[in-house]
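Hello,

Our lab assistant flagged a job as stuck in the queue for most of the afternoon. It eventually completed. Since we weren't sure the result was trustworthy after the delay, we are filing this so someone can double-check. Below is the sequence as submitted and the structure that was eventually returned. Let us know if re-running is recommended.
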Amino acid sequence: MTTGRKAPAPGATRATTRATTREDALDRALRALALAKSFLSSYDARDKTLAFAQYATLCASNGAPGKLTSASASIGMSRKPFRIVKPLESAATAARKRASDAPTSAAETIRALGMTCYFAFDHLVWACASGACGTGKEDARGRFQRLSYWGWFFGSASGLFLDTNELNALLDVMREKGFGEDGNAPKTRDGENTSPFVDADEDLDADEREAREREVEALRKRARKVFVGLITNSAQAILALALLEKVKMSKRKIGALGMFLSAVNIASMLPAPAAEAPGKTKTA
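-- returned structure --
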């Protein structure tokens, strides 16, 4: 016995699938566009994106005269307006209250002053390029450029010292709490585990488990920030020395290192992706 219902035509099914696929692709494209728009809303993000393009063209040209090298220089100059207030921000950081211990306080001061010099002298390079320095501007521009790179080096080296200290402090906290250990956590005199991370689900109510999870997440965020700082400050210090010709590197390697540094900075600044619309289902 047959029913009166007809099976959908194969062509109609394929058309529906194609329409759904196009709709999903459009939805992903719109979410990617929204993410890019949100990311590029800040001047710092625009600066880092242009930095990636600047170093990419330098890497491709290897410093040889031509269109790519000229493009790299032009892109570098186009970054300057997005950094116009950076010297003031760094100078304000230098004026803040310092840490109590002398080495950390000195490192914080050197980092702030170094980055202030980096941005301030870089702006003077920009002024010379625009013809504001008058006669002998090429000599002045070269001196300002070297002073800018030295400020970048000392600021980054001091930041690396501070990040190393922060990493040591973080490891001390993790060791004290038994984070990541398995059976080697601190014990009480009765031999009980004192770690909130090891066997933490035992004898804990919902509020205590939630508090423990928040503590773990806070440590993870702190660790991610420290590791990004270690990577970027190390790369910046090496890059500054290479640009000062104190470390022998080809222009291609300098460009590759600059691309890596810019990519790390961009990744650390990316906002969280927008969630899919409620009720949206993925197709098989």
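-- support follow-up --
The delay was a queue issue, not a problem with the job. The result is valid. Helices lie at 10-39, 43-61, 67-78, 86-94, 102-129, 137-177, 206-243, 251-269. Residues 183-189, 193-201 have pLDDT under 50 and may be disordered.
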